[in-house]
């Protein structure tokens, strides 16, 4: 009887479909398609020039898609793309997800920011190892996490003097955006699949008048910041 | 008879060996691993800290949970100059309870002169999970507590000597036994000492009784000037200036996890800061000139201000931020001329003073036990 039970356990274990692989996501900041290290100078809207000093975002509900089903990869990640050195900016921010069922997926989906249920919480609700414990990503007047930070300084005259700081922080539920990319993505048993995700900050800032409105902390002035989050769809590019 | 001779020979040999063994050690009473402590009861009682409403959980390392005896020992070590080479400097020399655990000096004084930076307040330090010291070089309190002892300016001592002093002390071995279950005095080491100090420091928690706390809980109203300052501090009202304070000094701790260049040093490039701060630790150029924002709670007790204590008063601090600070490439983008009126500056100051809570300053459990 014992032998029979053991045998069936052994057989059961042997028949289990546990083929799994790894997905490595490489998030990179680019500007007009070129790798974007922080503090590098980029042309912006005519004679103006910009240098970015901080680029980061919260990513939520990262999923792979197959048919109408989804494979959940991660609830929340803080993606920091602020790298001074070209080599590090070229490598970007790497996110590794293991033990993904091996199969071919049709796409990837993630939110930039936080869904309303998570955004209703506060940093004090999380342990210090969670990205959501970071008080620097919470803005009290909005009762919201800061979904995305784009910070830098501008040379408004093209003279080489970067004397105007700019800060675009997105946050609050209406500014949460879900992005979905369709591409065949094959996870193979025991192997690593790479996917590169570019965030093009030139496209992200398309139509933004940094010089006239270098900050977005007025909750009643959402036109500019809505433009920015609505640019996300064009600014994020998937590369295999 | 042969038996008797053999017995005497054996006893003599044992005596000789004992004499030789004793000759290699300090005292006859002290075995090589120190005084036996197992007769002292080790019965740790967990310490349950009182956490103000809205605060995060107080996380404790799995191998250093707070206990009543651990904190009692840590408190003694914190206030005892035994840690310094000439027994003149203790942790409390730079972290005085009456000054909200700072020392009132621009640069702290150690056994060999002046340290390069001022002492940070220890109020709520147990909630700071993203590096300690102005430059974040210590990952946690246990690591931090090891540093000042061997700093040549601060305490100028060596840990091996401190360990010897503690092992040979008339009362500390018993207290280490009660705190950590140390079986012999020889088991006392720097890591246990640091753990005890860290436990005590984690117990330095705001009382949650500041005017701001009571306002945040809906118990009281702020005065008009305080409320205006509150609106500017956190940018609640777009019709009045945003003083941009909350980015680095967010509630409830009035600090954040990040490091910032707050425009107090001029540098034409990323490499010429007089004090590189975080950059010295990370080696990343854009981290140069960045420092950990201290908690603003009890700031009325913590003058002078900034890592180098350059500002004597809160008015000077507000004027600095109102000016937009000095130029450097990585100066935080939230620093720009605010153009606050004298009334607005006064209102901001009024709000800052609502962060005052003398509960921890007067708490008998946080005072010098000697």
Structure explained in plain terms:
The complex is a heterodimer of chains A (240) and B (370). Chain A has six helices and 13 strands. With 240 residues, chain A is α+β, with helices and mostly antiparallel strands. In chain A, the strands form two sheets. In chain A, strands 3, 4, 5, 7, 8, 9, 10 and 11 form an eight-stranded antiparallel beta sheet that branches. In chain A, strands 1, 2, 6, 12 and 13 form a five-stranded mixed beta sheet that branches. The longest helix of chain A has 14 residues. The relative contact order of chain A is 0.21. Chain B has 13 helices and two strands. In chain B, a hairpin with a 2-residue loop joins strand 1 and strand 2. Chain B is globular and about 75 Å long. The chains are: A alpha+beta (240), B mainly alpha (370). At the A-B interface, strand 8, strand 9 and strand 10 of A face loops of B.
Keywords:
heterodimer, A: 240 residues, alpha+beta, B: 370 residues, 13 helices, globular, disordered N terminus
Total number of helices of chain A: 6
| Percentage beta strand of chain A | over 45%
Shape of chain A: globular
Largest sheet of chain A: 8 strands, antiparallel
Q: What are the secondary-structure elements of chain B, in order, as H or E? A: HHHEEHHHHHHHHHH
| Form type of chain B | globular
Give the total of beta strands of chain A: 13
**What Rg of chain A, in angstroms, do the CA atoms define?**
21 Å
What gap, in angstroms, lies between the N and C termini of chain B?
A: 63 Å
Please state the structural category of chain A. alpha+beta
Separation, N- and C-terminal Cα atoms of chain A: 53 Å
Unreliable spans of chain A are 1-16
E-strand count of chain B: 2
Mean pLDDT of chain A equals 90
Integer-rounded radius of gyration of chain B: 26 Å
SS-based class of chain B: mainly alpha
Largest interface: A-B, 35 and 36 residues
